# Entry
Amino acid sequence: MSTAIANWVVSLTSTSLPATVSQAALRSFYNWAGCTVGGAAHPATTIASRTLSRFFGPPTSTLLGCRLDTKVIDAQHAALINGIASHVHDYDDTHLDTIIHPTGPVAAALLSVCETLHRPIPGNDFLLALIAGIEVECKLGLAVWPSHYDVGWHITSTTGSIGAAVAVSKILGLTSEQTAHAIGLAATQVTGLREMFGSHTKSFHPGRAAQNGLLAALLAEEGYTSSLQALEAKRGWVNVSSEEALANLHIQVDSLGKTWETEKNSFKPFPCGIVIHPVIDGCISLHRKHLTSSEEIVSVMLTVHPLVLELTGKKYPRDGLEAKFSVYHGAAVGLLLGKATPAQYEDAVVLDPHLVQLRDRIAAVADPSLRPDECHITLTFENGARLEKHVDHAVGSVHRPMTDAQLQAKFLDQCVPVLGVDRANRASDWCWGLEARDDIRSIHEVL
Amino acid sequence: MSTAIANWVVSLTSTSLPATVSQAALRSFYNWAGCTVGGAAHPATTIASRTLSRFFGPPTSTLLGCRLDTKVIDAQHAALINGIASHVHDYDDTHLDTIIHPTGPVAAALLSVCETLHRPIPGNDFLLALIAGIEVECKLGLAVWPSHYDVGWHITSTTGSIGAAVAVSKILGLTSEQTAHAIGLAATQVTGLREMFGSHTKSFHPGRAAQNGLLAALLAEEGYTSSLQALEAKRGWVNVSSEEALANLHIQVDSLGKTWETEKNSFKPFPCGIVIHPVIDGCISLHRKHLTSSEEIVSVMLTVHPLVLELTGKKYPRDGLEAKFSVYHGAAVGLLLGKATPAQYEDAVVLDPHLVQLRDRIAAVADPSLRPDECHITLTFENGARLEKHVDHAVGSVHRPMTDAQLQAKFLDQCVPVLGVDRANRASDWCWGLEARDDIRSIHEVL
# Structure
């Protein structure tokens, strides 16, 4: 199977891509770039950058959203740090069938290696490699879903290492055998335990996955050997990290190039676990219609998909990172503030007494009959009145995807504070125009 | 449990160490240094070094056994490459109860970080940190044994990352909480699938584990957070990577500082999977006594512990790396050449027609009643004569440990071809005198 995947990767050409897939990949990259700029100043990113600066090698690759004097570093560290930044606000993309955040590991590795190459990298070659990485990453995620995630693997990084290796192999033009070795070298670095959710290490995962995959492809290019059955062997990646039958892997690999996972990628309107989004969406609409203060609310009852409580059941978040795993915080900011952007996940906001008080009045119950993008909200007021809201499909879900205009507003919301209005608009134009660009290495001039 | 381990690490002092433990740690380091020099010129090491040289940061840390002009590189890459070199001949140490090769990941990370510090590092501080790392590494191995290994994890690197993080935390003087975060950051990087055995990637594992642990401790020192329950949580390291009960973890953590795993470390007389050693030992003794040519042998029957065939059943090895997983090759070189050093695992030797012919005449059967360090060998000759050999405990096992003199002969056998006689002897003296040394950063002058 490793070899079959490698063969598919090598044979993939731009002409075989449906236009909808290229467009979805472009939106994925655009969203990733904005999130990476938006996460550049977060402590998880800056601690990593500060700690590792003593090791930086020759500067070739851009750290997105950084000051000009610290902006170009070696490719391995750029992959790590951009990967961290892209995920740190939990604001990146989601492949809903697997809860993989696919672009982070793949784009961070791919971009950093492109900038080391001594030749122009056309935008469509870049997108092709990005698509190859995302497709393999998500197909592998589907092959090991759900037991891989259930047991405790952070599927974004465990599959992301392999996706990153594939994308880098593609842009380097590796042979099928080299690509298979790269897949093996990436597969053996199984990074990411779900126990880390709520700490800096959660965003370390996609960063390290980018680095793992980059390292894997570079070693394979130079003849480093791994196994050519790394995924399917008895003690290979699928069997070791999941309880799924190998037949699933066969089905997913056979579907490469027939169904496209990149098309199913979705983008988050809110910077937190995607399972909370229906609740936030509903609470924001209730805010707009009815509420300006929490005083009058006696209780809030949320009825949600079971995964919501499993993943985001933190009742008493102590800081912004923990609040991302609190459906209670999501509901509270939606109801009270009417929005949920990174600003509503600042530590000080999370500890605001009004929000703390409102969170205390919110209860949530799981209902397995609900879809993950669905929820019910019931408010009870001091005067005994009740208000109900049913969210059928949350904004940002596949049924209500964010429009390009919404994506652009999100991009600018993250980039303007870092880059200023002019540079942010220029960066937005540059990213939207990626596919037609002659050489994407000019990215360091704009982002 | 992560916190309990961290507390133990922080409280550990040289005065609380039994002398036998310090001596065992010294022998472990000595053996590691020789193996690392011996592996420096192997393709798995040189490919990694050549590939990654484009990323090398400021030079601080020694690559053991390298030419003076390429010898000092940044600490992260030194940890990786020394870790690869130390394991590439499968000639390093073994904690027999877990089959962990404990010193590689821990020493490679620890040595490389010591050389970055702007203060003298006394030899006994170095040994103390090494012991802390090896103890935690092996106790964790015992906690997840055997299911962790059985399912397919290369236990050397999966526990080695954590051991390396502990050793680096100790030498950096991290607090208990920082050490616990380092353990979490290391635990989330679960590197090493057994499927990679027989390829370059097997030795990549301890190298990457060293790097993982080093990175973990450095990030934790700067305030990067992980989980303080990384090992014991529902979706933490033990539950995700094994089927063992958490009670095992408790037992092992409670035994820290009471029983010492470092004392149980053993050293290999032969550069291959340790389970083959009884067969090689027996075959060498048969060679000495009876054989000078394979011509007269009609058949060889090996009766071995079941793990021998599971791990080293490669009947037709194609190169030196595969031969390390061939009990047939081990038996053949023992019988025909009377020795098994790295020279007998060169690719050309593995393909020698006389050895190929003899391997064809060797059969092996598993007998679960045998101990792992035991075997029976039966030779049948053309004239119908039979010769039997029972190996009760292989040389290098805990019952027949290598003496210091044997370790030194092994060290010099590996170092003389690389360093020359004078430097190799000086390096040997330097390593034996480690504990009393004022500053181990002088290592770059000798190794």
